[in-house]
């Protein structure tokens, strides 16, 4: 099972989702062979490490983002990944435009896995203050828990065939 998290720049939200979900899945689903990655729909920050504020907020909750580097979504990602989870509707729409028809059912909003949060989008924290980064972490931790539960039970997940 291969999962890709996608935001705009791949320096704030999606690398956070990658690190949080990887850590949670290692704890909760050690038996599952999961491959986890993240990418951005825009390439402004390609090759860069995650945003310093993102790294600091994540580190305070025990997540290490220091090895991650930003990259842009590529055509082959639509073949490689079973589930492609967008942080907001704008990025979901961009993915829908770029994806071949057979891959569109692999695209979802990540917060569909956190219905209790009452929102479907992880807001872009880039131009905001410190609270924005904590809010991003709260939402992502909730959705990562929900995704782990969906993978454990199979409920709420119709995983499309990769072929
Ligand atoms: P991300 O946040 O999509 O969560 O990585 C952003 C990072 C950079 C920019 C926008 C959003 N930017 O405009 O450079």
What does this structure look like?
The protein has 163 residues and is of the alpha/beta class. It has one domain (2-153): Response regulator (Rossmann fold, 3-Layer(aba) Sandwich), CATH 3.40.50. The protein has five helices and four strands. It has a four-stranded parallel sheet, with helices on both faces. The protein is globular, with a radius of gyration of 14 Å. The two termini are 13 Å apart. The model has no long low-confidence stretch (mean pLDDT 95). The protein binds 4-nitrophenyl phosphate. 4-nitrophenyl phosphate binds next to loops.
Strand-helix topology:
Layout: E1 2-7, H1 13-28, E2 35-40, H2 52-60, H3 77-80, E3 83-86, H4 89-98, E4 107-109, H5 130-153
Parallel strand pairs: 1-2, 1-3, 3-4
The structure holds 4-nitrophenyl phosphate (4NP).
The site of 4-nitrophenyl phosphate has 11 residues, from loops.
What's the short story on this structure?
With 163 residues, this protein is an alpha/beta fold. The protein has five helices and four strands.
What binds here, in terms of ligands, is: 4-nitrophenyl phosphate
Strands of the widest sheet, in order across it, are: 2-1-3-4
CATH structural architecture: 3-Layer(aba) Sandwich
Annotation, overall tally of beta strands: 4
Helices, by number, come to 5
Class by SSE composition: alpha/beta
| CATH classification, class level | Alpha Beta
What is the arithmetic mean of pLDDT?
95
**Unreliable stretches:** none
Say what oligomer this is.
single chain
Query: What is the fourth-level CATH superfamily?
Result: Response regulator
Helix content: 25-40%
Major sheet: size, sense and barrel closure? 4 strands, parallel
Distance between the termini: 13 Å
- For the record, the count of structural domains works out to 1
CATH topology: Rossmann fold
Instruction: Kindly provide the radius of gyration, computed on alpha-carbon positions and rounded to a whole number of angstroms.
Output: 14 Å
Give helix and strand order, one letter per element, not per position. EHEHHEHEH
Strand proportion, as a percent range, falls in 5-15%
* Envelope shape: globular
